[in-house]
Design brief:
Strands 1-5-3-4-2 form a 5-stranded mixed beta sheet. The protein has a two-stranded antiparallel sheet with strand order 6-7. The protein is built from 14 helices and 7 strands. It has a domain of 87 residues: Conserved hypothetical protein from pyrococcus furiosus pfu- 392566-001, ParB domain (Alpha-Beta Complex), CATH 3.90.1530.10. With 305 residues, it is of the alpha/beta class.
Length: 305
């Protein structure tokens, strides 16, 4: 074993309970039945040491909140702990990984912990996925599910399965509330939810296509100066004179659904280059003014007019 690796190993020793602080936002928040755990520890001792990290002359808990609280309930003076010298990010990650391995976290707590790494600590989705040995898609979906207030409440308060919520997440936001209500009333599993979302998407796409064709016909009927055949092929014109192709909204939605299920490791170099080009164009389009301005022509070189 290399010296560097040996230095990273935790030291197992007894730590005074009075010197241990609990982080402001621990990964696990639901403590469950502490009294039952305390009785077991009183009879059989601590079967699994807690984990702490050194912070100055004190210790910060990294995992084992229930065991720590049970020890305090028993008025123990000290507790056996793995003592590590790591920074806050590493400590948080160790706590998260241990709880994931022990399956001690609810889906809500797991999502909040993953979101904490991304939003507060500045980790990328890829870094989080690599750290917990999950896919980027898994991390992204878990975080986004619990960012939606209705899905969060349906899962944590009304028993909606997380797998069903993942399917409902793909539905349009304005349609999601009704789908959540129906899934709870009818007890949908993932397969039922998928069928419902696809049917709703198909109906919405047909409605959008019908509206766009209607707008197209209205615009075509008002056009002048062209033959009937040319008018039938002319797309709807915006106020700025740029053509908006028929089926645009439907195409955007279909592409959005595709990129939600694609895995980063499946992308080729050409795929990534195309996505980067698309991203640049989308940024320009999103920032463009919707109000047409006056056409400005720069002066010709040499002062010519």
């Amino acid at each position: 074993m290399r010296p560097r690796d040996r230095a990273r190993l935790p030291e197992l020793r007894y730590v005074p309970l009075a010197a241990i602080d609990v982080p402001r936002r621990p990964v696990r928040r639901a403590l469950g039945d502490i009294s039952g755990l305390a009785e077991s520890m009183d009879d059989y001792g601590l079967q699994q040491p807690i984990s702490v990290r050194v912070v100055g002359d004190r210790y910060r808990l990294t995992s084992g909140l229930r065991r720590l609280e049970a020890a305090r309930m028993l008025h123990w003076q000290q507790v056996l702990a793995f003592v590590r010298s790591v920074d806050a990010d590493q400590a948080y990650l160790l706590d998260l990984i241990e709880n994931l391995q022990r399956e001690d976290l609810s889906a809500e707590e797991e999502a909040d912990a993953l979101g904490e790494l991304v939003r507060t600590r500045g980790w990328t989705l890829q870094q989080v996925a690599d750290a917990i040995k999950r896919s980027v898609t898994y991390v992204s979906r878990r975080v986004r599910i619990f960012e939606d207030p209705e899905l969060r409440e349906a899962i944590s308060q009304r028993g909606l399965p997380v797998s069903t919520a993942e399917v409902l997440l793909a539905a349009e936001p304005e349609l999601r509330s009704d789908l959540i209500r129906r899934s709870l009333d009818e007890g949908w599993d993932q397969a039922h939810a998928r069928v419902a979302v696809r049917a709703l998407d198909t109906a919405t796409a047909l409605e959008v296509e019908s509206d766009e064709q209607s707008e197209y016909r209205d615009s075509d009927a008002e056009a002048t100066g062209h033959s009937r055949e040319m008018r039938a092929r002319q797309p709807q014109q915006t106020a700025g004179g740029d053509s908006r192709p028929p089926g645009f909204t439907r195409s955007v939605r279909e592409f959005h659904r595709v990129i939600m299920i694609v895995r980063p490791e499946d992308l080729s170099g050409a795929d990534r280059a195309a996505l980067r080009a698309l991203f640049r164009d989308l940024v320009l389009l999103a920032r463009a003014s919707t109000t047409p301005g006056p056409r400005v022509f720069p002066p010709l070189p040499g002062g010519r007019r």
